[in-house]
Amino acid sequence: MNRKLAAVAAIATVLVASACSSSSSSGGDSKPATLSKDGKGKTVTVWLMDDAQKGWPTVVDAAKKQFESETGATLNIQWQTWTNYTTKLDTALLSGNAPDAIEVGNTQTAKYIDAGSFVDLTGVKSQFDNSDKWLDSLAASGQNADGSKTYAVPYYAGARVLIYRKDLFAAAGVTTPPTTLDELKADLTKVKAANASTPGFSALYLPGQNWYTAASFGAGSFGVKNVVAQKSGAKWTGTLTDPKFIDGVKTWDDLQKNFSVGGTTTDEATQDALMAKGNIGAIVGAGWELGSVIDPKTGDPKLADKLATIALPGTAAGSPTPAFLGGSDLAVPSKAANPGLGATFLQIYTNTQQQTELAKFAIPNNKTLTAAYKAAKPENKAAGDAAEGSTWFIPNSPMWSGADETALKTAFGAIAAGGDPATELKKVQDTVIGDLNG
């Protein structure tokens, strides 16, 4: 009961904020969007994270110039930070002073969709460039639970990859990257043997409670975007106990038991710093973590030319293990003063021109332009390949909470400690599905 009350409390504010919008539990009563260019004399307010201000200001500037030219409106970009962002957004929605367009993390989107707090973009989706090629999991995060309607537009993404020490692999006789899981196991066996005298060495660091990586192996066998639960009618049903998912988890368990000394009660939070210390051959992490490993403040700059990344190999060459896809979405609040202009800004900000420029800095929102991202820097190829492949996402429900993630971390930690995968996954599935279904 306490777990569920915590999840309900987390969305209470936004539910109140949207009460006047006649929202439903599926967000289906949110008003449909229109695209407007009637902006003369109007100011359009947009909230964007300062990641764009620091990382790709040219994209923002170009979109601002085009928007103001085509609509006659003045664009007011208000830069935000992730710290306490949802609290600030909830307050704005509650007070009725919502911006006209916003950025939101893709794991945060579901609660606002469910509350009817976003304008329904389904009717104008086809007018957004490359909308038929949006990245699978990023697109799914902007939809209602059954995927029938779109309330948020994919913005940019990040994908988990295999980050490894080229020098340690080469010293063990591995000179070409593995392309399949069998090749990865063979290579890790060599790396492990070559470093047998190094205390606490992990050929592949897989801490037991890193459930995102563990579940990716399950996704590789199961072949679904959502590897925890799926919506079936009005109810959620679990996928964790599917035999194919369990087989994939057994593959992960075999890897962590044979090649990792990451422990059973820790997650991936410290893996970058540990890799920088020199006793890890490879980790599975977001592409940007390579920079953390070599950062002078958090890692070792001397490793800069010794690291490489590839998409985590799958069961067959050319088919990576499905990656969890994180990132950001863009939406128009239902109570925006200028929703049509807000939607038009999103249309311009995510058009082919802007996304092509953004691809120099981050994974763009669609598979058509991931090639531009991979071409921008050699180290981008791995994350680009992962994003183009099969990806997965958490249950797209407002009832998903941090408590569910804690339960999953505990379950996979128990498996890493020797617990039976089928038994532990059944227990956590019952917990998560109970939460999702209230």
TrEMBL record:
InterPro entries for the chain: SBP (IPR006059)
Family matches, as Pfam families: SBP_bac_1
Gene3D superfamilies referenced in this protein's UniProt entry, alphabetically: Periplasmic binding protein-like II (3.40.190.10)
Signal peptide: 1-19
Protein keywords: Signal, Transport
Family note: Belongs to the bacterial solute-binding protein 1 family.
PANTHER family: MALTOSE-BINDING PERIPLASMIC PROTEIN (PTHR30061), MALTOSE_MALTODEXTRIN-BINDING PERIPLASMIC PROTEIN (PTHR30061:SF50)
The protein, known as: Sugar ABC transporter substrate-binding protein
Gene source species: Kitasatospora kazusensis
